[in-house]
Amino acid sequence: VIFREGDPAGFLFNLVAGAVRIHKLLPDGRRQIVGFLVAGDFLGLAYNDTYGYTAEAIGPARLCRVRRTEYEGLLAELPGLEKRLFTVESNELTVAQDQMLLLGRKTAKEKLATFLMQLAERASRHGGDGMLELPMVRADIADYLGLTVETVSRTISQFKRDGLIRLLPDNRVQLTRRDVLDHLRAGD
Amino acid sequence: VIFREGDPAGFLFNLVAGAVRIHKLLPDGRRQIVGFLVAGDFLGLAYNDTYGYTAEAIGPARLCRVRRTEYEGLLAELPGLEKRLFTVESNELTVAQDQMLLLGRKTAKEKLATFLMQLAERASRHGGDGMLELPMVRADIADYLGLTVETVSRTISQFKRDGLIRLLPDNRVQLTRRDVLDHLRAGD
DNA sequence: CGGAGTTTTGATCCTCGTCAATCCGCGTGG
DNA sequence: CCACGCGGATTGACGAGGATCAAAACTCCG
After folding, report:
1. Nearest Cβ partner of A93 from B28, B92, B143?
2. Which bases of chain D are contacted by protein, using any atom under 7 A from a CB?
3. d(Cα A78, Cα A69) in Å, to the nearest integer?
4. Gap between the Cα atoms of B74 and B77, Å rounded
């Protein structure tokens, strides 16, 4: 656990290596994962003296931690940093809005297809084909997509049966029919 | 319509008076409203040369429009503006994440209760009691909460039967049991 | 092997979506 | 003034997608 929802927001972080999930909880334990972060991403930018979500490393991770008081100084020293962070934040907002569309209006199959294509895109930017790794467990995927573990599992099985994907050892997935998945993602 | 998703993002706006809804669409017409804006709010801050969503005025509205090229100049002229906008953007992101929790994990009743309490809070900041106005139609509420019109209507009726709210002429609502609604909002 | 955690699969249930009818408020025009 | 029509809201009947509950199968390590 890097920090918890409600903690005083004394630091901000940059993820150097590894993967992190950030989530919010309802009092009875229902969880919504609001993002998966990879190397290069920032944590704790949006704040209001306490963190708005909990951040946990999924596996081993390396973070760069900046005290918020020093951060103010950094902004002054490095012109252009503020603009850059603003852009980062804007992109996050855009991503968040896409996710709202997904959570509010997409079916389970569409949600999974969107998720897989998202990961594929991330992976291919670092030079991959249709092969990708799922660093998170099913429960994480479910809580990210607003589904249950069972539905995630069933939908993946169906994709497998339909020949859209292939499951490989080591939690890796091969997207065999990206065209079909892309259609599903778009939502018709 | 102020601008559409996909339009080149030549301007940014500040809403002076009235109410605006912003939404995203799936190709088959399913709609997700990602926000309702009131006087003082900004539109088009987050961008990537095209707008990420469609913005429509709900009723008569007044907007202040700034050409994006001039906006860059404004930032240079007014130090502190960038920081202020950054804060605005941060808050929007936080709100967006709350909405993800709502869309992904809350039940219909919890969604409605959250929505009503949100509006009540907005209204009470401008000095109101438990009385609030719904400037938007049922379909808008449904598309904001990831529900259907029918479910919204049924849930409102149930709240009415249960004595949590009272419907008044002119699309106004009186929250008679804010305590119960607040419990529902929190989610248990 | 053994055993815990995770994933898959099956059976059943229930919330919410769909389809359809009715109702209500309101403006229009005969 | 009242009949009509229209968009929005409500209500009802029904069905489906996904949740829930339960059990089996797989993985990974010790």
Report:
1. B92
2. 8-13, 17-22, 28
3. 15
4. 5
Nearest to B104 among A48, A103, A187 (CB): A103
Annotate A95-133 with b (16+ C-beta within 10 A) or e (fewer). bbbbbbbbbbbbebbbbbbbbbbbbbeebeeeeeebebe
Q: Which residues of A touch B146 (CB under 8 A)?
A: 103-105
Residues paired with B173 in a beta bridge:
B132, B167
Owner of token pair 């990210």: A144
Please check whether strand C approaches the CB of A145 to within 7 Å. Answer: no
Residue A142: HSE in the Cβ half-sphere, 13 Å Cα cutoff: 14
Cβ atoms of A35 and A3 within 8 Å: the answer is no
Nearest alpha-carbon partner for B34 in B26, B24, B44: B24
Mutate which of B5, B21, B23, B32 to disrupt the A interface (most A C-beta within 10 Å)? B32
Bridge partners of residue B123, in order along the sequence: none
**Is the model's pLDDT at B140 over the cut of 80?**
yes
* Mean pLDDT by groups of 10 residues along chain A of 188 residues: 93 93 96 95 85 93 91 82 87 96 98 96 78 93 98 97 92 93 88
